[in-house]
Automatic annotation (TrEMBL):
One of its GO terms (molecular function) is zinc ion binding. Belongs to the peptidase M14 family. SUPFAM superfamilies: Zn-dependent exopeptidases. This is M14 family metallocarboxypeptidase. The active site is at E272. Residues 28-304 form the Peptidase M14 domain. InterPro entries: Peptidase_M14 (IPR000834). One of its GO terms (biological process) is proteolysis. Keywords: Carboxypeptidase, Hydrolase, Protease. The keyword Cytoplasm does not apply. Gene3D superfamilies: Zn peptidases.
Length: 304
């Protein structure tokens, strides 16, 4: 499979005018204020709502929020849930919100809970993987990051000064990865894309530096109760990466600048849901995201 992208020239990386041309084609398609920010603020009775930054993408401005345990206690382990690093991945945002709304109060008896529901609100509104500068926030979690979304999230977590034991980062893999985002990436970087695999179902990406296979297995087993797990392809791979165990592959999240590599937490995972599958619904995708967080936290609790 190959696909030419309408911006740029084959095998030549984009210049500034290409990125400007790309940006001019983007349009707001849904409301962060109505669909996300309002839900965050509605949780103020259950969790502390903290604004940790602001993005000014003229003419659009976005406030960035964290939801945080009201009963914060330094002796408790801290857990982090992130969504919307890729703003277009809808169930990641709404899965983080659903966990915060329906389950965070229970788990804050055992943990200090932090939820960053939508790290990339411009991406949410325009249904984009990148920010307006054609930068992927989920390849930008490192010092002096070029993505303000990533930089502000890291700065906020650092200000809390806590040791995070677990980080679950909520994502999707969609049909638009092939129709738009993979071709755009290849065009931007002047390369050819050779991976067109989109797994049909839910899977996890663990961290090669701390894979924690038992932890990943516990999450997969929990998620399997609410939504299908993606089978490996004929090469025993998912998205071109060898399967470590059923429903799990591993990336070096730190080297790649992934959100799951932003802390020193020993237990980290990135979820991937396929919302375009025949058996998928918006609700069971959200349910899968919530189940992943619950599976992760229950595993840690059961460690004693």
């Amino acid at each position: 499979m190959s696909q030419l992208y309408p911006i740029g020239e084959a095998n030549i990386p984009w210049q500034a005018h290409h990125k400007k041309q790309w940006l001019e084609q983007q349009q707001v398609k849904r409301s962060y204020t109505d669909e996300v920010e309002s839900q965050i603020k509605a949780l103020s009775d259950q969790l502390d709502v903290e604004q940790y930054g602001r993005l000014d993408y003229n003419p659009h401005q976005y406030s960035l929020y964290a939801l945080k345990s009201k009963q914060w206690q330094d002796h408790k382990p801290t857990v982090l849930v992130t969504g919307g690093v890729h703003g277009y991945e809808t169930s990641g945002v709404h899965g983080a919100l659903a966990f915060a709304k329906h389950h965070a109060q229970y788990y804050q008896r055992f943990f200090n809970v932090i939820v960053l529901p939508c790290i990339s609100p411009w991406g949410y509104e325009t249904i984009n993987r990148w920010n307006p500068n054609a930068i992927d926030p989920n390849r930008s979690f490192y010092q002096d990051s070029p993505a303000e979304e990533s930089r502000l999230a890291m700065a906020y977590i650092n200000t809390l000064g806590c040791d995070i034991v677990c980080h679950v980062d909520l994502h999707e893999t969609t049909d638009t990865d092939n129709s738009e985002f993979r071709p755009a990436l290849a065009a931007r970087d002047g390369k050819q894309n050779h991976n067109w695999n989109i797994p049909d179902g839910f899977y996890l990406v663990g961290h090669t530096q701390k894979p924690q296979p038992a932890f990943q297995k516990a999450i997969i087993e929990k998620v399997a109760t609410v939504t299908p797990i993606a089978p490996a392809d004929e090469s025993n791979q998912l998205i071109g990466v060898p399967v470590e165990q059923f429903g799990v592959i591993n990336y070096d999240g730190t080297t790649l600048g992934l959100c799951m590599g932003m802390t020193s937490a020993p237990y980290v995972t990135t979820t991937e849901v396929y919302p375009d599958g025949a058996s998928a619904t918006p609700q069971n995708c959200i349910d899968g995201q919530v189940a992943a967080v619950i599976g992760a936290l229950d595993y840690i609790l059961n460690l004693g």
